[in-house]
Specification:
Elements lengths: L7 E6 L3 E6 L2 E6 L2 H13 L7 E5 L2 E5 L4 E2 L11 H16 L13 H17 L5 H11 L9 E3 L8 E4 L2 E5 L6 E3 L1 H9 L6 H8 L5 H21 L10 H6 L3
Helix pairs in contact: 2-6, 3-4, 3-7, 4-7, 5-7
InterPro entries: AGP_Transferase, Aminoglycoside_PTrfase, Kinase-like_dom_sf
Pfam families: APH
Protein name: Aminoglycoside phosphotransferase family protein
Length: about 250
């Protein structure tokens, strides 16, 4: 056996799910069977490149590796070309123009629910001394712009920059569809560009239609404020350079 290709690598692991890589195969283990089922269903519907499903035996999903390299990483400068970022925007637009799936996804939560959960997270951040009160208050104010009427589209729901793979200037594949469903288009665009504000113009140009940049910035604040506790509790570092806390500071 090829020791390099057959090495087992833990891609991500926490109490909810784990992803292992064995050669060119990714094994996703998820305690929530519905989340695995949703991922398989979404990949069968979307008009963008996705990983090939090799087999699906809940709670495990086996996927083939997609070619290319990640568009970027949170906390690191992206080496992808401006054309690749624009291609990512165009791919997101194709997704958003697709027929609506039956499921409401992560990006489809209503404003009242989002605001209530956000207030809980803001309170936790301040009460526990995780972030200064003025930083939290300013970003909570910025986040208000996300609470507005929107028309549902087919969203990825977790379109982090390292979930988009490029080959040269083109899109090779988009991974991790477990949160896909009906939702707010600008949630996807904000998630893709979080920590990479310098590429927002390229993404919007590729997307091909006007977007409200204040809402994009609102989602940057909302997502960052809402995720910090989860990240800390699951062993991730939102204080790393270029990550969530820096995104909040940039709004000051």
């Amino acid at each position: 056996m090829d020791e390099v290709n057959d090495a087992v690598k833990v891609v991500v692991a926490h109490s909810e799910r784990a992803t292992l890589r064995v050669g060119d195969v990714f094994l996703k283990v998820d305690a929530d069977r519905a989340r695995i089922d949703a991922e398989v269903e979404a990949m069968a519907l979307v008009p963008v490149p996705t990983p090939e499903v090799l087999w699906h035996k809940p709670p495990v999903l086996a996927l083939a590796a997609v070619p290319g390299t990640a568009l970027g990483r949170l906390g690191e400068p992206s080496t992808a070309s401006p054309a690749a970022w624009a291609a990512a925007g165009a791919a997101v637009r194709r997704l958003h123009d697709a027929p609506l799936p039956p499921r409401v996804g992560r990006a489809g939560r209503g404003s009242d629910e989002l605001a209530a959960d956000l207030d809980v997270e803001c309170g936790w951040l301040v009460t526990n001394g995780v972030l200064p009160a003025d930083l939290v208050a300013r970003n909570r104010e910025v986040a208000e712009a996300a609470f507005r009427p929107w028309t549902p589209v087919f969203t990825h729901g977790d379109l982090q920059v390292d979930h988009v793979f490029v080959d040269g200037d083109g899109i090779a594949g988009i991974i991790d569809w477990s949160e896909a469903g009906q939702g707010d288009a600008l949630y996807d665009l904000a998630t893709l560009t979080l920590g990479h504000e310098e590429h927002l113009g390229e993404v919007v140009a590729g997307y091909g239609t006007d977007v409200d940049l204040d809402v994009i910035r609102a989602w940057w604040s909302l997502r960052s404020l809402s995720n910090i506790r989860w990240l800390v509790e699951h062993g991730f570092d939102p204080f790393a350079p270029g990550c969530e806390v820096d995104a909040l500071r940039s709004r000051m």
